[in-house]
Give the backbone structure.
Amino acid sequence: MTVDFRRVIRPVAIGTIALLTEYALLGTQQFANALTLGAIYALIALGYTMVYGIVELINFAHGDIFMVGSFLAMWIMTTVLGLSGPVTNLLNLVGLLSIVMFATMVGMGFIGMFIERFAYRPLRHAPRLAPLITAIGVSFILQNIISSLFGPSPVNVPQIVPLDKFAFMGGKIGYLNVFMVVLAVVLMIALQLFVGRTRLGRAMRSTAQDREAAELMGVDINQTIAITFFIAAALAGAGGVIQGLYFGSIKFDLGFFVGLKAFTAAVLGGIGNTTGAAIGGFIIAFVEVYATVLGYTQWSEVAVFTVLILVLVFRPSGLLGQQLGERA
Amino acid sequence: MTTATSKRLPSPWGRLRARARDHRSLTILAGWAIVASVLPVIVMIPPLSTFQPESLWIDGFANAGVFILLAMGLNVVVGLAGLLDLGYAAFFAIGSYAYAFGASPFTNLQIPFWPMLLVGAVVAATLGILLGAPTLRLRGDYLAIVTLGFGEIVPAVFLNASAFTKGTNGIGGIYKPELFGFQFTLENPVPYYVAMVGVLAITMVFLYRLQGSRLGRAWMAIREDELAAASSGINTITTKLLAFALGASTAGLAGVFATSKLTFVGPGQFGFQVSFTVLAMVVLGGMGNIWGVATGAFVIYTIQAVLLKELNQFFAVLHVPILQSIDFVQYQYLLYGVALVAMMLLRPEGLFPSSRRRQELHATSDDVADVPPPTEALGA
């Protein structure tokens, strides 16, 4: 059985090297933090990269969809489920987390589809400036709706997962970190299987490659694009749940910087490439955590942005992407 | 059309229009003179004069001028060259800090205001070139996101490099402009108003001249079809870079002016909201039409600075329970967001469109469908 270099060996090699370097530089404790943060970025970056791959649109509102996801999860936990503190019974905890996760992802998925239907679909054939400006508009609408519903100051999220830690290889790792990283990886594998093995996934790939040819082959383009937005928004929603549980407080403008970092991750991995987006997410989180470790917390955003510029200058196709043309 | 009208009807109005067409720059200068002298009179008329005293109106108009400058500059980038710049406030910040460094007790320098206008513009343009050079080679979307990042990073640098910028506290006590020994003061907004009108008129003449020049036509060609423009012998990278630099320099100019008026600069003034507001001004006014975006900027600034507050007071006086509890100022960005989306969906050419832009933005799907679709595969 032959193994495709570009599709299998290179991603695995790059991912392994990146993770080993991170571990060597950060040590167990900070490595766990970087992995957790990376899980969030990767989940959002997947959304950027999928949407870009299929409609060639940088969805500026995607960071804000993530933010709305974190608020939706908070609302479900506090108002619908009435939770306020740690849930110690393991069975209850798993059940509650599944409900929150499922409800948030489905809810966000529909919001994503709604946005695509009413803001982006009418502009699919418009000059490319038009959907970009619309995306910025949508981003501001989402931010302001949330800030008028929940207020402009940070909102606390109930910490339903107990903050217990266990000793592991010289560091103390929270169960929460493990849960989050595992969840993100499971979601990413599920996405890969969905895109690679199912009928809808094949429709998505063919639409990304050549929309007209796909249409001629009987692919329902509108449905496929809507599903892409659904999945992208659902993954961002999952990231939002994690964000709330991990940091304990959320704010209406948090989607801006997280979105920018996740986009950098998507570009770093090669935009349009889902594996690349995941790897990029973990690398960007590493850059950020490493800046913090070195004592330059306030410069971490500048560092990430510098990474973005450097990638665009020296390797605009990203680590795993194909060469992008200059087409405007 | 105007030619035919003026030939058939040699009315005074027709002759005036023909004159205006032949002497574009003079018309603009005359237009500004009329607008500038009419505005102070209008605000003395009852409904407007009850809102606030005349000196406050004049002060507000001078501030609006800063936004008109910003909008005209962004119009070169977004409207003429078709490049989406989402971090425009960064260049505004750079111009502002340039003046603060050049003329404040903080650095012990006292460079006069008028040369600093140019210095601010040049510094902003230089940074614009540095930022644009790596990114303009790529697709327009990348420029949008890179400028978005740049717009956040520049204030962050001014905030964190506190040894050079006094961080959050900002730089205060910045010197005010002076002209032939006449000192501008905070109490009297009229000199600022007059100076602003002068700067605006000159900038507008310059931009109109540029728009009709070889460079301006190259921008529009790139906006409409970059491949075709490149095939026609336009150096797309240099041309785009020039648009970007020119837009940045206008923002730098606006920054110097705003700082000299406020006599203070701090990193909090240049958030994403500023970039977003200016973008909304350009889009609402009509991308590509200089008078259109200037009007859009003026109208939006006035709505934002005066009318929303008035609306609050109005409903507070009326005692309408629901409307009374709404703080309209708080919702201005929501309104801008809705306006941007609605404009793009319904009237992408803006409220005061340029005819060429309207044609382009109303392209039917058939005109665009022959652009080859993306080839990037989704799976890895």
